[in-house]
Specification:
It contains six helices and seven strands; from the N terminus they run E-H-E-H-E-E-H-H-E-H-E-E-H. The chain has a single domain, classed as Rossmann fold. It is of the alpha/beta class and 189 residues long. Helices cover 38% and strands 21% of the residues. The termini are close together. Strands 1, 2, 3, 4, 5, 6 and 7 form a seven-stranded mixed β-sheet that branches. The protein binds flavin mononucleotide (FMN). Flavin mononucleotide binds next to helix 1, strand 3 and strand 5. The site of flavin mononucleotide has 18 residues, from helix 1, strand 3 and strand 5.
């Protein structure tokens, strides 16, 4: 049976989009159709697609310690679906990207998780262990889950072009995150 996974994201400058693409790559397997919806330009047809999806993965950059305004607009607009209980029991997950290592982005993840809970969805966290560091180690750029986030996927982008930020480790983590969501979605179907 085919499962549909949709990544509903916003990205002002392309970094979160890069992460979304890696999540999509990881989620792709034989039984899964994966698509991306930029929520800042969402159409009526795309809202219908979300209703039919098995899983929705939410992704927003962190702006001023919270989800970006276009993503928040999407959250508010989803209240129509909330009324109709359209997304109940769908698999949900979330990711955020920010400029600082912390940048208060846990707040954004909590917003995405709360959105999923309001809709009665089933939240799946990030399953990869963070790097095992000691002394004065700093997590290398190619480390998986170098930020050590578990409630969802966190990535960090220096103020550089999306061609080089976020790091290879963050993009690998995003891929593994997508794979996990696809596997769990398949289990639920
Ligand atoms: C309006 C605005 C607010 C921002 N606020 C934060 C913040 O609170 N914390 C942080 O770490 N980075 C912050 N940043 C940096 C972005 O999170 C970072 O540039 C990110 O890569 C942007 O993702 P995007 O390219 O998908 O838009 C902010 C950037 C903008 C434009």
């Amino acid at each position: 049976m085919t499962h549909s996974i949709i990544i509903a994201y916003h990205s002002g400058y392309g970094h979160t989009k890069k992460v979304a693409e890696s999540v999509a790559k990881g989620a792709q397997n034989g039984d899964t159709t994966v698509s991306m919806i930029d929520v800042s330009t969402i159409t009526d047809n795309q809202w219908d697609e979300l209703d039919k999806a098995s899983a929705i993965i939410f992704g927003s950059p962190t702006y001023m310690g919270s989800a970006s305004a276009p993503f928040k607009t999407f959250m508010d607009a989803s209240s129509k679906k909330w009324f109709e209980r359209k997304w109940v029991n769908k698999i949900a997950a979330g990711f955020t990207n920010s400029g600082s290592l912390s940048g208060d982005k846990q707040v954004t993840l909590q917003q995405l998780m709360t959105l999923a809970m309001q809709h009665g969805m089933i939240w799946v966290g990030q399953g990869e262990m963070g790097p095992n560091m000691s002394g004065t180690d700093v997590a290398p750029a190619d480390a998986v889950n170098r930020i050590g986030s578990y409630s969802g996927l966190m990535t960090q982008s220096n103020n550089e072009s999306p061609d080089i930020a976020p790091t290879s480790g963050d993009l690998k983590t995003a891929e593994l995150f997508g794979k996990r969501i696809a596997e769990i979605t398949a289990r639920f179907k």
